[in-house]
């Protein structure tokens, strides 16, 4: 068929084409490069061609295929492409979702970390503020200058401030121990316990307590404030303890000063109104006894008058001595052992009347103080005579001396009935006495003398019976 005409059907044609219409259309340029046509057998086809020049001839190379086959292949490829695209899109969406989840979790983790950091900062700031508030509260509590404790209904110590800890030791040793055992060395609740009253009344209670601390009587004021739960029940008590010893001493000094003023006025009046008449009475009686030789029954009455007049004169002289301002102390070296022995010698007859046994106990030391010998001797005479008058016949008095770096301690102990507890705070007050014939000035004068010597004197009862008076005097340089 090569080099044959497509417009003319010849016998030599192999009849492989039904027609050459398409070729004619190409030659006539009715189809340009590609197109779609309906073949003679009514098949819908697609054609594509391209001219190629070989030598002097121009050849048309055409490709024709049924439209259905092409579209089927296209559809097949398109389906594959769509399937592949769907897979790709699915993968992309899955990866995107995975990345989104990862980013979301990462963001949530970052947010949690940021929130945790913020929360941690807020906790740190709040902790710092709480510490600052606690420090401020501790400073306020410390500045109060009083002892604070929290006590439960069983009187156990739950908390104590620094001032209590300094006085009684570690808080660990105090926690859950009874306050009356730890603070006051008692086996049972204090008689005037304000905490007990607060637990009962659910109101603030207050009381005063006196304690012997290191041989010194000290006074404390205790205020109990209720701590309630949500139901309004008192579950704990805040106990505030103040040392009011200085205040009490100032009050005592003021009272004693007022008493001294009154005593001075009384003494001057008595000395003027009674002193001279008593001197005349005593002198007249003595003249009668010495010169008139009265009958025995009259003489006996005169002697009674003389004794009582002399006793009344002693009272007036004691009043004047007590009320008279001190002339000061003439300081000289005083050896206490020698002073005691001389005083016992002066009182030998008084001790002998009741057969009082005196025991002396001294260490091998030179007990020397600086002071007024006659005044210190008067103190010993007053104290020993008081002991003699309180003792029954054949009673006992123990005198002992101790010394440390600062003070000499003189203890005078007897085995008598002791001092009534209600009188212990008053025995050094002027005119306070429990004896029928006593004036109540001996111990008051003794206390004033000791204090003028920069010492102190205390009195207490012994558990075994009897009483002990302790005198503390500074050691001489």
Write a structural description.
- This protein has 477 residues and is an alpha+beta fold.
- It folds into 4 domains: 20-122; 145-243, PAS domain (Beta-Lactamase, 2-Layer Sandwich); 249-323, Orthogonal Bundle (Helix Hairpins), CATH 1.10.287; 332-474, Histidine kinase-like ATPase, C-terminal domain (Heat Shock Protein 90).
- It contains 12 helices and 15 strands.
- It has a 5-stranded antiparallel β-sheet with strand order 5-4-8-7-6, sandwiched between helices. It has a 5-stranded mixed β-sheet with strand order 10-12-13-15-14, with helices on one face.
- Helix 7 runs antiparallel to helix 8, helix 9 (336-346) crosses helix 11 (373-390) and helix 11 (373-390) packs antiparallel against helix 12.
- The relative contact order is 0.05.
Quick recap:
By secondary structure, this protein is of the alpha+beta class.
Core attributes:
single chain; 477 residues; 23% strand; alpha+beta; 48% helix; five-stranded antiparallel beta sheet; five-stranded mixed beta sheet; Beta-Lactamase; Helix Hairpins
Estimate the mean pLDDT confidence: 79
Distance between the termini: 159 Å
Top CATH class of the largest domain: Alpha Beta
* Computed Rg: 62 Å
CATH architecture of the largest domain: 2-Layer Sandwich
The backbone outline, from C-alpha atoms, is rod-shaped
In DSSP terms (H or I, runs of 4 or more residues), the helix count works out at: 12
Main sheet overview: 5 strands, antiparallel
Uncertain spans: none
Order of the strands making up the biggest sheet: 5-4-8-7-6
The ordered string of helix (H) and strand (E) elements is HEEEHEEHHHHEEEHHEHHEEHEEHEE
Structural class: alpha+beta
Say how many strands there are. 15
CATH superfamily of the largest domain: Histidine kinase-like ATPase, C-terminal domain
Into which percent range does the helicity of residues fall? Answer: 40-55%
Q: At the third CATH level, what is the topology name of the largest domain? A: Heat Shock Protein 90
Strand content: 15-25%
Number of domains: 4
